[in-house]
Amino acid sequence: MADGGVTRAHPAPMLLILSFRWLTVGWTAVIALLSNQVLEQRAGLAVVTLAAMLGWTAWLTVAAVRRTGRVLTVDLLLAILVLLVSGWVGPQGQLLTDHPTFAGAYPMAAVAAWATVYGVRGGVLAGLAVALCLPVGYHLNGSSLFLAGYLDGVSLLGSALSYVVLGGAVGIATGQFERVSVRLAEGRAVVASLRERERLAAHIHDDVLQRLGQIRKDGGDLADRGGVTRTELRALMADVGRQEASLRRLVLAEEPGTPSGTRSLVEAIAEVADGFRQWPVRLVDSGHIPVPADVAAELAAAVNELLGNVVKHAEAEHVWISVLDDGAVITVDVRDDGVGFAYDEPELAASGRLGLAVSVRARLERLGGNVIIRSRPGRGTEVRLELRSPP
Length: 391
Description:
By secondary structure, this protein is of the alpha+beta class. It has helices spanning 11-34, 43-63, 69-89, 106-140, 150-225, 230-251, 265-274, 293-314, 345-350, 355-366; strands spanning 2-3, 6-7, 262-264, 281-285, 290-292, 319-325, 329-336, 370-375, 381-388.
């Protein structure tokens, strides 16, 4: 985006420069009021200049203006004016000494602002503008360049080069900062895309793939039995239609809105457990555990997947679920006394069993939680879901 022909940059560098500008204004006030670096007969001009610096800086701060070309030009002209006034109001020859001057570091803020907006080229040009005006300030301070000695000339050259080097250095640093901020934004976009992809994968696995598998089984049973009635066929087709609608909502982003508010985690998991009546499910909890509704929905979906795995693979006789909150971590344990298995996630993924990876582990990782799986052949399985307690 551009404003007045100027690329709008990240605000952080300009905020740093604004802070530096306030420091230089404060330092200028200290030099003007508490030292002898301003001649008494020219104090009025120093006060007017200081008031202009203060008012301009306050306006830049309060108005939060975008650094257009016009604003930057005025800023640079004011910085040059301060530099010239510093030579005029100060004691004769002070610019050639090591004593602090009225101008202080204020012109540097203007050079840095140009470098932030226009890059290295803008910073160097602004630095050159200030550097070229520096001899005029020396002349107004009573130091003729034609009569200056070798050391005085080196001092002037060093002061002039400092503005140019500052402009180039700030321009380089700002460019690097912009590139890093862009890459960071791109990285965040990639992470958000991956998280959305994981969410869609979990939804498809839980709500579509499993149901399609059941439809295929039911269709096979009907084919084996023969004599399919029109009512049975319509019921099967209606189920297919529901899965089609679910997929269409995902494609068209018509998924219902994210749940808002809070919900009891124990209640959400108990509702899931009630849907499994193949074996007695024993639920142990530490009482009402309020969590955001979307967190409760994600954890309940993970538990639903775990119980579904028990039905399909565990051959268990009992299942235990515990939902506990110690104030720091919420722990959900799902344990069965089934046949168990040797947990190898890559091997399970290769065989097409994606439930633990996609529907359980990925859900917890999106929430900032963790999954611990303990299982051995013949010893049953325990899956622990851990999530930091909400504040």
